[in-house]
Structures are given as C-alpha cells and as structure tokens.
Amino acid sequence: MLDIIDQLTRATTHIKNQPQVGCNGHEELCSRKYSNITHIGTHDAPFVGVLPMENQNVDVPTQLDAGIRFLQAQVHRNAFGKLSLCHTDCLMKDAGLLKDYLKVVKEWLDNHPYEVVTLLLTNGNPRPVSEFDEAFHASGIVPYAYTMPPNSDPNRWTLESWPTLGELIVKRTRLIAFLDSGANQVRYPYLLNEFSYFWETGYDSLDPSFASCAIDRPVDLSRFPETVKHRMYIVNHFLDTRIAGALVPDRRDASKTNAWEGRSGIEKHVGMCMGMYGGRKPGAVLVDYFDKGETLKAQALLNGF
Q1: CA within 20 to 30 Å of 177's CA: 101, 191, 195, 295, which one?
Q2: pLDDT digits over 229-264, tens only?
Q3: Contact between residue 248 and residue 241 where contact means Cβ atoms under 8 Å apart
C-alpha cells in the first residue's frame, strides 16, 4: 500500500501541462477533421485512487491539463435515484453525481477556449436518456455540446462528414458527448449514439500481448464492411488481472501496457488494428493509469507529431 501511495504522489508531481496553443495543443489540428485525430482516452476517468477498482491515479482536471481530451466513464443510478459515476455498481465505487462531474468538465472548458473534449458515457442500468439530459442541463455544459446538423442521418454519416477542430472551436461547440446505449438523437440531438459513429475492440483483456483487434461492439458489425469503413473506432488498450476471482485493473504492469513499444505496447496493438482496417488509425485508444508509460507520446506520434 505504501508503494502505491508513493506512486500516486510521484504521479501528481511529474505530469506536465500541455501547452495551450493551436487546437488541442497543436496548430496543425485546427484544419484536421475530428474523425482524423487519435485521442488517448482515460478509461473510467473519474475512478481515481489506490483501491483495486480504481483506474486512474490523478483527477479529471489533471488529466485534461496533461493533454487528455477523451474521457470515458460509467454511469449508474444510485440508491437515491440520481445518476452517479459508479464502477459496475454504486455499492462498489461511487465517484459522485454525473451533474457534478459535468460541472468540472464545463469549468475546464470555460478556462481553455481552444480545446475540444470528448465524453463517452456508458449507460449502466440502463437509464432513460431524459435523465442524462437533466444532468447535462443542471451542469450548464449543454451550450458547449456539438449537435448534428438538422436532418442528418447517422446511417449516412461518414468520416468526411465530421467538422474540423477549428470549426468546432469557432462555433463554440467544443464538447462531443456520446452514450453507449439509450441515445435518442431526434429528441436529444447533442447526446450522440456511440455505435452510430464508433465501433470498439474487446475489453477486459487478460492477455498482455493484446492479440486481437476483432470488432466486439456493435455485435455483428463485422458483417457490414462498408459500414465499418465509415465509422471511427476505439481500441481498448487496458489490461486486467484477477484478484480473488474478480477482474480488476492491472496497476502493476501499467508502465509496460502503456509503453509505446514492446510486447504489450500501444504501437504494436494499434498497428495490428490499422493493418486489419485499411491503415486507418483509431479515433481513441482507451487506457488505465494514463500517467504511467508513454501514453501522451503515443498520442503525439499517432497524430504525426
């Protein structure tokens, strides 16, 4: 335990803030479409600490300051009937109300006017999308949210349909929000259906070689190669281990998992996926303990910097 606490202390002191230049830290990204950018995303971003079910070492504002622009989180209904950030179940880990989390992200966006942030929320129970809409409005973040053009059809949306980062910044729609289930874009057009625009590789891997890039979700999407070609994809590059029979994040080997090179490294995993899908880079690579290893180096290299 003392070793883990020491790791957390060092994590908060060695992370450097990304320079605030251009769009998301790079002038070159201003003219690049959102669909042509690879983000390192923090898997279970709000679950911070030393316990086995906690996936990150530092809080969300620190993640954003460092250069993370893609935040993933689980949302469940708590015992009081409110949407909370809960790990699998609110009795196991409750990191607070969704609306408070959104307020933190809004405040960060207020203070960083040239940054575009993506939120991916998993609808754990699942709950009606109206409850998500209520939390978003209560936080004050909705004016930042990107909304699809009127009458746009997700089934006809392609990689070329996305705006550039510069366009998102000029229009002040610097938040892209996705729900993995339950979205209703006709009624709530700013809460986007993740799987209309992304597909994902498998997760909860116990294999440190990350030997698969098969499409895991949506189920059966691989039968429709033309659809696959027009969607971004997410590489789930986080390793689990077993403790007393339960799957938990592998904190011990995070530096190896999050290295750029090596048997478990990001370069190898992403390269395999690119080889399978026409050389396209992923839209996001989700990681645990992003401060370990070389995740931000990977993000820079995958974007050509």
Answers
A1: 295
A2: 999 999 999 999 999 888 999 999 999 999 999 999
A3: yes
| Tokens (6 digits) for 184 | 């209703």
Question: Which residues are tagged catalytic?
Answer: 43, 87
∠ CA 256-261-263, rounded to 5°: 65
Place of tokens 């020491």: 6
| 203 closest CA partner among 47, 60, 72 | 72
What distance in Å separates the CA atoms of residue 282 and residue 199, rounded to the nearest whole number?
A: 10
CA–CA separation, 57 vs 54, rounded Å?
8
Taking alpha carbons only, the member of 247, 245, 262 closest to residue 206 is 247
User: pLDDT tens across 137-170, in order?
Assistant: 999 999 999 999 988 899 999 999 999 999 999 9
Q: What is the pLDDT of residues 27-85, one digit of tens each?
A: 999 999 999 999 999 999 999 999 999 999 999 999 999 999 999 999 999 999 999 99
Rounded Cα gap, residues 34 and 282, in angstroms:
11
